Amino acid sequence: MPDVDQAANRSGALSLRARVGQPDDLPAITAHGNGRHDGFPSTSEGDNQMNRHDTRTPDRISRRHALQTLGVLGLGTLLAACGSGDTHDEPSLPRIIYTDADAGTRCTTHMALGQLLELRLRIDNPNSTSFYRQRGYSWPELRREQGPDRRVIGGVTYDVWYFRAIVKGRATLHMEISTPGSVESIRTVEYRIEVFETRTWTTDPSQVC
Q1: How many CB atoms lie within 10 A of CB 146?
Q2: Using the 8-state DSSP alphabet, how is residue 128 labeled?
Q3: Distance CA 191, CA 76 (A)
Q4: Which residues pair with 206 in a beta bridge?
Q5: Surface-to-core class of residue 121, CB atoms within 10 Å of its CB (0-12 exposed, 13-18 middle, 19+ buried)
Q6: Are 158 and 123 in contact (CB under 8 A)?
Q7: Which of 52, 108, 115, 193 has the most other CB atoms within 10 Å of its CB?
């Protein structure tokens, strides 16, 4: 009868492997004295082997690693976007650079969609607390991308602003210099802009006076 019992036990183990999809070359799942059915010896070494055993398939592991990598890249992209404005130049659309000397409402500057306008507004006394600020908004024709950035260019101190044309139409940029806490402006400069869908002129800046 022992031979019959052993054959029955073996048949039951094979049937269990077939149900759970266990390959034939893995150790048979057998019961141990401590009630475990994990295929590892009922010893401290067997417990360590069980803890190190990873039941995840390679496909699941690779998918998890891929999702983690995409998450890190997405976070890096978000942080980079929050850290600075978009001041790149669109292909075939040269950047227009104006100073406060180019201000005035007598002429209108033509811009194409996507084109960038850089305003360099002079600070006469770099040691003062005076600064430029935008009065009102020119949205939606122009969008402020960045600024003001205090920079020294050619030995002159400027507050530099960047605006991009995003919608067709006409806009007027109003910039004023004042001191902190003051509602009165020391000086105001204005720029008239008209935004077109495409650039049809050959030189920039193109102005109509």
Answers
A1: 15
A2: S
A3: 37
A4: 110
A5: buried
A6: yes
A7: 115
